[in-house]
Glutamine--fructose-6-phosphate aminotransferase [isomerizing]
Amino acid sequence: EKGGFETFMEKEIHDQPQAVADTLLGRTDAAGQLILDELRIEPEELMAVNKIIVLACGTSAYAGMVAKYAIEHWCRIPVEVELSHEFRYRDPIIDPTTLVVSISQSGETMDTLMAVRYAKEQGARTVAICNTNGSTIPRESDAVLYTHAGPEIAVASTKAFLAQITAAYLLGLYLAQLNKKLFSGQIKDILADLAAIPKKIEDILERKQQIKDLARSMKDDTSVLFLGRNVGYPVAMEGALKLKELAYIHAEGFAAGELKHGPIALIDEGQPVFVVMPSPMDRHSLHAKVVSNIQEVRARGARTFVVAERGDTAVEAYAENVFEVPETQPMLMPLLTTVPLQIFALELSSAKGYDVDQPRNLAKSVTVE
Ligand code: M6R
């Protein structure tokens, strides 16, 4: 049941530390090596993979985008991410060295199922990242990497998203281990940082009142923009999708670098803008660029709400409201920065008196094309 919470969504947001921990559980041996035997694809075959295509819809596709950043960085294998319904109808180029990774909470999304079937027909190997045991997509795939988020009841996906990102990291690290693209010490360090994530999510949940108060104060706003870069970009889009689904207000997520190519024209007096800050340790020094973006939108009257790493003092001068997340390595930040955005959407929806668990016009799993 709802475990003492008012809605399933709130409960599921609080299940997230467990969802990440359970998805990591049992996937390493005593020596700290990743063991993904369950993949049932021969290591030789995985080592021959020279392109990965991730297929998914909605929130699961944003998990796919995070996977792209991580897998390309760690494994040096090109990764394309495509919405399942677009992929299927565009003559994609696939061969037996293409690994198709589908991501689906339900395992029943018709668009994704059709895309996986199509990829199989074209000769690709298929792996499903899925949260539902024995559902159709994993049954029809060559291999499956289950996320262990437990049943997700609320229509808006939360804990499944964090579990999908976790599973995608594991897949990336496993491929890096097989192909010797990372030293075993590096893999161990990343796994240790992953293992520390559940506690850090708890730290965020303990401070949720700050976000709740903010959401309540914004219940008459009619449009909210979200900016992010690198792995923060899919987080920005996920923040916007949550708000569309739950609060029925116009929301858009942008890559912060794209701002000056058009979206900045949307900024006028009072426009709320959420900014997902990159880590100050980001190896591309994106942090300074996003600080400039905050200044640019503020100069045009935007109200800025920034999700930033604890100790990131550079943003404080510019943001109206800063929500801190604990430190982790830059690639793993989505597991933390997503959480305040989920709480924000949940709270804004309930402040407006909407049904958080059953938003209008939506179904939990979309079983028609
Ligand atoms: O079950 P799936 O992960 O395949 O579902 C994909 C999307 O329909 C799903 O993520 C949808 O976008 C959610 N309502 C997001 O909150």
